[in-house]
Amino acid sequence: MLYFNVFGQMMGVLRRDEEWCLYHCSERGLRLPIFDVIIPSELGEDELGDFLGKAYAHLAKCGQRRVVAVS
Predict the structure, then answer these.
(1) pLDDT along the chain (71 residues), means of 10
(2) How far apart are CA 36 and CA 33, in angstroms?
(3) By three-state DSSP, how is residue 63 classified?
(4) 43 within some domain
(5) DSSP SS3 for 62
(6) pLDDT for 30
(7) Which of 3, 22, 43, 63 could form a disulfide with 70 if both were Cys (CB 3.0 to 4.6 A apart)?
């Protein structure tokens, strides 16, 4: 799973059966699936951060204006 800090919210992206699955990652380690955002299957790993930034631009606040890959 690839993890991203999306404007202060932790999200995970997992490749499963030729599709990307998006999850909200809680502080307790729970992964909640996100169904209302569909990541195009043709996107590569290096394009996911940009896609998430555009999909969740409405979450950007002062001091939280980036999407960062988290290891």
Answers:
(1) 94 96 94 96 96 90 80 76
(2) 9
(3) coil
(4) no
(5) coil
(6) 94
(7) 3
Q: Which residues contact 38 (CB under 8 A, 6 or more apart)?
A: none
Domain count, the chain: 1
DSSP-derived secondary structure for 1-47: -EEEEETTEEEEEEEETTEEEEEEE-TTS-EEEE-S----TT--GGG
Chain position carrying tokens 């999306």: 6
Question: Per the domain annotation, does 69 fall within a domain?
Answer: no
Structure tokens at 49: 């951060």
| Distances, alpha carbon 26 to alpha carbons 17, 19, 32, 47, in Å | 24, 22, 8, 23
The answer to whether the pTM exceeds 0.85 is yes
Distance CA 41, CA 20 (A): 6
Lateral strand order in the sheet of 2-6: 31-34, 19-25, 9-16, 2-6, 67-70
